[in-house]
Design a protein that fits this description.
Layout (H helix, E strand, L loop, with lengths): L4 H8 L6 H6 L4 E5 L9 E6 L2 E7 L5 E5 L13 E3 L2 E3 L6 E2 L5 E3 L7 H7 L5 E5 L2 E5 L12 H4 L3 E7 L7 H7 L5 H11 L3 H6 L1 H7 L3 E10 L4 E9 L5 E3 L4 E2 L3 E6 L2 E11 L2 E11 L15 E3 L15 H10 L17 H18 L35
Parallel strand pairs: 11-19
Antiparallel strand pairs: 1-10, 2-3, 3-4, 5-6, 6-7, 7-8, 9-10, 11-18, 12-13, 13-14, 13-15, 15-16, 16-17, 17-18
Helix pairs in contact: 6-8
Length: 396
């Protein structure tokens, strides 16, 4: 059943005070690669969940995340002075520490009351696996999940930062529970590319061009996460039942890709833009331990595949997915869609999203929030040791 415009807004709006935004603020979100914050450039602007923020590292090495506009008279803290114990506004010198507290107000003879009013929301920041993560919800903050692809020492990691997506985050996440789009959007599109592109993607074409004879969906509840796993039955000359890898609530996909396991984090920038981070984990041979400090995790930045004439190149999975998501519109109008049997995973995701929004509004805690350290030593999906991961040449 198609959604009403009001139902669609509840699922897609991410700003402060919106139902969807209040839910998403209960989860840690990647902000940027940690390598973007350096002694030479110790701060940068971040837009996330409809808020303009500044992430910085003070002189003592502590990270802070504060609203960009100073509460005094609105100047940008992105031009602020980094000091040993915080960030100072470049306009009048008001200073804030990493907890968001205002600790100095020069030229104010009696600043006590004004300093309390100037305190900013206590947004938390942590570094893990070469990324900085932010938490913007109510305190106490839950534990930052130690996903297996982020903390396992039995392999190496790399980070890919995709181009800014000009669409709502839910369009990307719904794709993760769509089991049949791979046949046309990826395999058939690649078959229509020049010969050199077909040759480079021969493995992907062979895998995804097989007929899909059946599909199903599994809603999984685990102590540390909840997700939806799509199941595909492939026919043809190489039949196979692929149990897939989970779309983790609310905005993560775990998927095999070119011999690696990849976590896709779909981070809402605002209602009409999304930033996607990939963390790629390549397992070592024979489960050997590998030493890879977080500051040695390589970072790659992908360019937007749209050409100057506005057309998409469609030569890669990234470009194909981005074309599909962005051409749905900035915020897809779900009131006009026609859903079929293959969209059951999409309706499952929307139902789960509605339930968790309602739960938060009622004062409850949504699924996938980790508070028990015993559950967070390493959060597994049963995927790193799955032999099928090497057979899937790309994510879907």
């Amino acid at each position: 059943m198609a959604l009403t415009e009001e139902q669609n807004r509840r699922l897609t709006q991410v700003g402060p005070g919106t139902p969807g935004g209040n839910l998403l603020r209960r989860y840690w979100m990647p902000l940027c690669p940690a390598s973007e914050i350096t002694p030479e450039q110790p701060l940068r602007q971040i837009r996330i969940l409809g808020e303009d923020l500044v992430v910085y590292r003070d002189g003592s090495g502590r990270y802070g995340l504060v609203p960009e506009q100073c509460p005094h008279r609105g100047a940008s803290l992105a031009y602020g002075f980094i000091e040993e114990d915080g960030i100072r506004c470049p306009y009048h010198g008001w200073k804030f520490d990493t907890s968001g507290a205002c600790v100095e107000q020069p030229f104010e003879p009696h600043p006590e009351k004004l300093m309390k009013l100037a305190c900013r929301p206590p947004y938390a920041v942590q570094a893990l696996a070469g990324l900085l993560w932010g938490y913007m919800g109510p305190l106490p903050a839950p534990l930052l999940p130690r996903w297996e692809m982020l903390v396992s020492d039995q392999g190496t990691r790399s980070i890919v930062v995709l181009p800014l997506h000009e669409c709502n985050w839910l369009q990307a996440q719904e794709n993760s529970v769509d089991p049949v789009h791979t046949y046309y959007l990826h395999a058939q599109t690649l078959l229509r590319q020049p010969e050199e592109v077909r040759s480079e993607n021969a493995g992907a074409i062979a895998y995804f061009a097989r007929p899909i004879t059946e599909y199903d969906f599994e809603l999984e509840h685990h102590p540390a996460w909840t997700g939806i796993r799509k199941v595909r039955h492939y026919g043809g000359d190489n039949p196979q039942i692929e149990h897939g890898h989970p779309a983790v609530f609310p905005n993560i996909l775990v998927a095999p890709q070119s011999g690696a396991m990849v976590m896709h984090f779909r981070v809402p920038v605002d209602d009409t833009h999304t930033r996607i981070f990939w963390v790629e984990f390549t397992a070592s041979k024979n489960d050997e331990s590998v030493v890879q400090p977080d500051d040695q995790i390589p970072v790659t930045y992908e360019a937007h595949p749209r050409r100057p004439d506005g057309r998409y190149t469609l030569r890669t999975f990234i470009s194909q997915d981005l074309m599909a998501w962005e051409t749905q519109g900035k915020v897809y109008n779900r009131s006009s869609e026609l859903l079929g049997a293959s969209d059951r995973g999409v309706t499952m995701l929307r139902k789960l999203l509605r339930e968790q929004i309602d739960l938060v509004e009622a004062g409850g805690e949504p699924v996938g929030i980790i508070r028990d350290p015993a559950l967070n030593e390493i959060v597994t999906f049963g995927t790193l040791d799955d032999p099928s991961r090497q057979r899937n040449p790309v994510s879907a």
